[in-house]
């Protein structure tokens, strides 16, 4: 698992977005295999939503999100399980008619590592949102009291790191899952799950059970999301995108198959997705 984050870094639909209303901070070295980033508002802002408006795509991550109302002196915490569907977020409306000062703090786990910070099964988390206490009561109890005293994203992230390092349960590592995830990431999602079970040396049924228990999705769904994310990364970073070469490299049957699969997870075609990502650039302002 320690190498996974070096093999694979998923992206949101707006990876260039950065400013006082939304910023990401990488975790310390000890948490890099488990946490994609900490994210949220730089400091309390007027009328800030829980998540900025915009497209949310499947990023093979799971998030704990704390929304702090400095006006009403309350905090709500949510746990967002892994998604295999895209959707548009409209943000969070004000709780009252008057101006409201709010801040957001999020912890984004890689999907395969979120379970290591919880004592619960992940069987039901796909495309679901829960009260954070449902799966992460220990983290909720330790983090929430700090959020009024520490107003900055940087300070909250550093404090959360110490809490997460204590909450990390090494005994929950599962060799079957981690071996299967390794092969899936190495092959960029372009593999047959029957062959994956053979590589892990367990039956297909056992592999399905392990994935659902620890990630909430099937091996086939995970491989499909990893392939989509690798394709999205290539679209963002390659100087020129050769669709037919991508068809061959990622194992699609033809160009139509690739475009259909991408649009299923992103709601738009590749060229539209690139334009949308660039349109969300805020330049740190």
TrEMBL record:
Pfam families: DUF6597, HTH_18. Residues 175-276 form the HTH araC/xylS-type domain. InterPro entries: AraC_XylS_family_regulators, DUF6597, Homeodomain-like_sf, HTH_AraC. One of its GO terms (molecular function) is sequence-specific DNA binding. It comes from the Bacteria. Keywords: DNA-binding, Transcription, Transcription regulation. This is AraC family transcriptional regulator. It comes from Eisenbergiella massiliensis.
């Amino acid at each position: 698992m320690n190498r996974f984050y070096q093999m694979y870094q998923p992206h949101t639909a707006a990876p260039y977005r950065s400013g006082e209303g939304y910023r990401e901070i990488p975790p310390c070295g000890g948490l890099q295999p488990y946490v994609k980033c900490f994210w949220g508002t730089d400091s309390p802002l007027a009328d800030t939503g829980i998540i900025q408006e915009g497209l949310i795509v499947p990023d093979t991550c799971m998030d704990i999100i704390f929304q702090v109302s400095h006006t009403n002196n309350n905090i709500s915490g949510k746990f967002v399980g892994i998604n295999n569907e895209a959707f548009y977020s409209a943000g969070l409306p004000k709780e009252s008619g008057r101006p409201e000062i709010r801040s957001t703090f999020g912890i984004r786990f890689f999907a395969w590592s979120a379970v290591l910070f919880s004592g619960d099964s992940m069987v039901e988390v796909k495309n679901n949102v829960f009260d954070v206490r449902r799966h992460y009561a220990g983290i909720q109890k330790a983090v929430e009291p700090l959020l009024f005293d520490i107003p900055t994203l940087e300070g909250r992230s550093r404090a959360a790191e110490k809490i997460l390092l204590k909450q990390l349960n090494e005994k929950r590592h599962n060799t079957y899952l981690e071996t299967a995830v390794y092969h899936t990431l190495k092959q960029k999602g372009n593999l047959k799950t029957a062959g994956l079970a053979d590589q892990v040396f367990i039956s297909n049924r056992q592999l399905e059970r392990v994935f659902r228990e620890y990630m909430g999705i099937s091996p086939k769904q995970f491989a499909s999301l990893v392939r989509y994310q690798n394709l999205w990364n290539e679209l963002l970073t390659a100087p020129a995108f050769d669709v037919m070469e991508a068809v061959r490299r990622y194992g699609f049957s033809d160009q139509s198959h690739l475009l259909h699969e991408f649009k299923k997870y992103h709601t738009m075609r590749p060229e539209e997705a690139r334009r949308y990502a660039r349109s969300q650039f805020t330049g740190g302002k």
